[in-house]
Amino acid sequence: MKRETIVALASLCLVIAACQPKTKQYSLRGQVLAKNEAADELTVKHEDIPGFMPAMTMPYKVKDPGAVQDVQPGDLITADLITANQGQDYWLEAIHIIDQRGRKTAKPAARRVLKVGEKVPDLQLVNQDGKPFHFSDFKGKAVLVTFIYTRCPMPAFCPRLSSQFAKIHEALAKTPDDYNRTHLLTISFDPKYDTAPVLRRYGLAYLDNHPEGFAHWDFASTNPLDMRKIADAFGLEYFEEDNQISHSMDIVLVAPDGAVAKYWSTIWTAAELEEALRREAKLGQGRKG
Q1: Which residues contact 52 (CB under 8 A, 6 or more apart)?
Q2: CATH class entry, domain 124-288
Q3: In sequence order, what are the beta bridge partners of 199?
Q4: Which uninterrupted H or E stretch holds 162?
């Protein structure tokens, strides 16, 4: 092989290696509280992970779908926690069940998550201006819904969701037709703290202090009972512990007819969400026509 060819291949290998996301590996030990086989996700109450995060309850994507099937709520497990993109992406590998006795006392999930095509419950929420509204008020628009709490300290969770929604909001504003046919909705599962004034301040921070943006993006909460109904309908997991709320990352696309169109969990991009929202809005116009 010619020297030039060898150099070229070596250079190519270096470029490929540089483009690969840098990963880190941590050891996780904890108890499985819930699992979502459709999303290949486990919610784990884990011990301290030195160098990454303190003890808390978190949802984790699992690379091996078979591992999700084998594990049951109540199991004690160990696993390798892999992170990439400076902690923005993370998942579990090499899951081992070390104790199954907790299965006997684990509470079975008493809920039925809405399937794609099923209508969203028309519950009342209150937005950042203290104005009550219902999901049915968005009839005719495609709505992208997510869940946060304003005190969330994890950059890869609520702040990431809100900042990516801000990018989508800005992009849609450049095309008035799509802007008018879509809506963004951020719901807090911390209604005791996230009152309307708190949500307004939080929302303005992501709207560059332009309150007119609230016409297209609502920040809302509801009473604890209805919040639990919404969470159960959309498969949202959240647990309040030590003045923090551990939660799954859930995004729901609601079609203009008020039915669930698509779900996302931990793996998505703002561009993907924006494209799906625009597409669903146009499909809704076609159905109406």
Answers
A1: 24, 26, 81, 83, 87
A2: alpha beta
A3: none
A4: helix 158-172
Place of tokens 């005190």: 151
* Fold: same for 23-103 and 124-288: no
Assess whether pLDDT exceeds 50 at residue 9.
no
**Burial classification of residue 102, based on how many CB atoms lie within 10 Å of its CB (0-12 exposed, 13-18 middle, 19 or more buried):** middle
- Provide Rg for the chain, Cα atoms: 21
Question: Is domain 23-103 given the CATH code 2.40.50.320 in the classification?
Answer: yes
Q: b/e per residue, 193-229, with b = 16+ CB within 10 A?
A: ebbbebbbebbbebbeeeeebbebbbbbbbeeeebee
Alpha carbon distance 241, 235 (integer Å): 19
For the chain, the domains span 23-103, 124-288
State pLDDT tens for residues 189-248.
888 899 999 999 999 999 999 999 999 999 999 998 899 899 889 988 777 766 777 777
Token representation of residue 247: 């939660």
Rounded Cα distance between 141 and 185, Å, is: 12
pTM of the model: 0.74
Q: Are 186 and 148 in contact (CB under 8 A)?
A: yes
Residue with tokens 């400076």: 86
pLDDT value at position 7?
44
Q: What is the pLDDT of residue 146?
A: 95
More confident residue, 55 or 76: 76
- Sheet with 251-254, edge to edge strand ranges: 132-134, 124-127, 217-221, 182-188, 142-148, 251-254, 260-264
3-state SS, residue 39: helix
